[in-house]
Design a protein that fits this description.
Shape of chain B: elongated
Distance between the termini of chain A: 32 Å
Number of domains of chain A: 2
Strand order of the largest sheet of chain A: 6-7-8-3-9-10
Radius of gyration of chain B: 21 Å
Number of helices of chain A: 11
Low-confidence stretches of chain B: none
Radius of gyration of chain A: 24 Å
Order of helices and strands of chain A: EEEHEEHEHHHEHEHEEHEHEEHEH
Strand content of chain B: under 5%
CATH topology of the largest domain in chain A: Rossmann fold
Number of domains of chain B: 1
Shape of chain A: elongated
Largest interface: A-B, 44 and 38 residues
Order of helices and strands of chain B: HHHHHHHHHHH
Helix content of chain A: 25-40%
Oligomer: heterodimer
Mean pLDDT of chain A: 87
Number of helices of chain B: 11
Largest sheet of chain B: none
């Protein structure tokens, strides 16, 4: 057990029959940080989390959580993790409070501790009133919050969040992000899976992009963006003739031209100098533009350039 | 996270076996809460036995079956209808198990450091409670409609013992069906197709001697008939012959096979999929 890494995954493989879902996944999550696993539907995100949380067997590789091998001592792993899955794993008939107390006792808390902790969590997750009602009556966002509260009942140091905001409305999503950020501030080690680039960008310290059962890129959001490239300058012309003239005048600087939109794209290294130079060239050639914009690379660009396909938002995996 | 002093958590450590019992008790509490809060099902628990009893007594009294030793039809029917109601009642276990497996809740239980079999224990044992309510309702209704048992305390204890064993056996078989089922609707049909013929092709509603010749050998020897005949003989203070032992052995045998099988299938379904 290295003192730094709370989660280590090495060469993880898993197949369903001939269908290889994971083809050698390697991941490390440092203690007290958040790693986001980012990938499209069917990339293997949920499979990875289910294996790490002892819910699923695997074919090859090792998974170590807080020094415990998932395959050898699943009970020890279960004692240090909290899992919030895609479908809220709470009891429909019981009330929110009853759910929390029952799960707390199953985590081996004393009845008194479980009750106190349940009330504490209900307050933190803004569920005090709802806590008295049957979960059946909860909205999607409330269910997810309760589900997350349940996974925190015994204050596990490691938390798995499997697509915690998939299917939530924007307001509930932001409320969930708030909670996740507070957990991070509390020093928890968090592993989050998401298909939303924005979510990974907003929340995580590190991002692992997974596709086709493999980690295809890893790093901070900044590093990943840098991999894709520099800032871009987009110039829009008024008329097709001017677009043509501009494209000709800028010559080798142009990396992309769009005849329909009348736009050309240039890569810029030094914003001041490069923009001034482009404008100087156009002024000299007497070509006028209607607008210009500078684009920073987004994680969407990262994804596109790494996988060669756009990340489809929405849906469940 | 909050400004208040965080709650100090106290954990209990118990030997593994005690932990398992404790988990099972928590699950019994959970399943029982289900039963008490599910008002539709609770109404069924009360009114289905009353309905069965009243209808069967009315219909078969009219047919005028020749019963041995001049016993009244309601005295004859009581044991059969109790056992049939218990058999139907036990199938709620399969629905509860299938329901759990279809939802995310099983994942939650799996990721907890708890005994997995506790989930099944909870459903099976709370089923016994619910069936006990049904049985009491039925006996009270029976008494109002002219049921006159002639059993001493020991006989009643034996009756309760046999009925509890029978319910446990059926609930564990139900649990297997619940684990194997692909959907909740599917399991409802499956239970119906098993329980209906088994309870009717027995000595529940008419003496097995009066049944059609092709069904008679089956009806005379199948376990449900043994259970019914032993309960009936004990209730009416008649000779029990071999029925008590046969019923006990069948039920214990069924539990001994079904319980570990259900546990194994449940474990396989929840882990290595």
């Amino acid at each position: 057990m290295t003192s730094e890494a709370a989660i280590t995954v090495k060469g993880l493989r898993k197949s369903y029959g001939k269908n290889q879902v994971l083809r050698g996944v390697n991941l490390t999550v440092k203690r007290g940080t958040m790693l986001a696993i980012l990938g499209p539907n069917g990339a293997g995100k949920t499979t990875t989390v289910r294996i790490m949380s002892t819910l699923l067997g695997f074919d090859a590789g090792t998974v170590t959580i807080e020094g415990h091998d998932v395959a050898l001592s699943p009970d020890k792993v279960r004692a240090v993790i909290g899992l919030t899955g895609q479908s809220a794993a709470v009891d429909e008939i019981l009330t929110g409070r009853e759910n929390l107390i029952m799960m707390g006792q199953l985590y081996r808390l004393t009845k008194r501790s479980a009750t106190l902790r349940a009330d504490e969590l209900l307050e933190q997750f803004d569920l005090v009133d709802a806590g008295k009602r049957s979960v059946k009556t909860y909205s999607g966002g409330m269910r997810r919050r309760l589900d997350l509260a349940v996974s925190l009942i015994a204050t596990p140091p490691i938390i798995f969040l499997d697509e915690p905001t998939t299917g939530l409305d924007p307001r509930s999503r932001i409320a969930m992000w708030d909670i996740i950020n507070k957990l991070k501030a509390d020093g928890k080690t968090i592993l989050l899976t998401t298909q939303y680039l924005e979510e990974a960008d907003q929340l995580a310290d590190n991002i692992a992009v997974i596709d086709g059962g493999k980690v295809i890129a890893e790093g901070t959001a900044k590093q990943l963006k840098a991999k894709v490239g520099k800032d871009r300058l987009e110039l829009t012309f008024k008329k097709l003739t001017e677009f043509r003239a501009g494209e000709r005048a800028l010559g080798r600087l142009v990396v992309d031209g769009n005849k329909k939109e009348l736009t050309v794209t240039l890569i810029i290294n030094d914003t001041n100098k490069d923009v001034a130079q482009a404008l100087a060239i156009l002024t000299k050639e007497k070509v006028s533009i209607s607008s210009m914009a500078i684009h920073k690379p987004t994680l969407d660009d990262v994804f596109l350039s790494l996988t060669g396909k756009s990340n489809q938002k929405g849906g469940k995996s | 996270m909050s400004q208040k002093q965080p709650v100090e958590l106290e954990f209990v450590s118990r030997p593994k076996f005690i932990s398992n019992v404790y988990d099972s008790l928590l699950m019994v509490k959970r399943s029982s809460t289900y039963i008490l809060r599910n008002t539709d099902q609770l109404l069924g628990t009360f009114f289905q036995p009353i309905m069965f009893l009243v209808l069967f007594t009315a219909v078969f009294n009219a047919v005028g079956l020749a019963l041995p030793d001049d016993i009244s039809y309601i005295d004859f029917l009581m044991a059969g209808i109790i056992v049939q109601t218990l058999a139907f009642g036990s199938t709620t276990t399969s629905i509860a198990v299938a329901n759990d497996l279809q939802r995310g809740i099983v994942d939650r239980f799996k990721s907890l450091p708890m005994s997995n079999i506790a989930v099944l224990n909870g459903h099976v044992i709370s089923d016994v409670f619910r069936n006990a309510i049904s049985t009491v309702v039925m006996v009270v209704t029976g008494l109002l409609f002219g049921f006159r048992p002639d059993a001493d305390f020991g006989a009643w204890m034996a009756i309760i013992g046999i009925l509890v064993l029978f319910t446990l056996a059926f609930s564990w078989i139900s649990a297997i069906m619940g684990v194997l089922a692909k959907s909740v609707e599917g399991v409802q049909w499956m239970s119906f197709l098993i329980v209906f013929p088994l309870t009717f092709a027995s000595g529940a509603f008419a003496p097995t001697e009066t049944l059609a010749s092709w069904i008679k050998p089956f009806a005379e020897n199948q376990p449900i008939t043994h259970v019914i005949e032993s309960v009936r003989a004990l209730m009416l203070n008649q000779p029990v012959d071999d029925s008590v032992w046969l019923a006990t052995i069948w039920c214990i045998g069924a539990i001994a096979v079904a319980m570990p099988l259900a546990a194994l299938l449940f474990k396989r379904k929840t882990i290595t999929v």
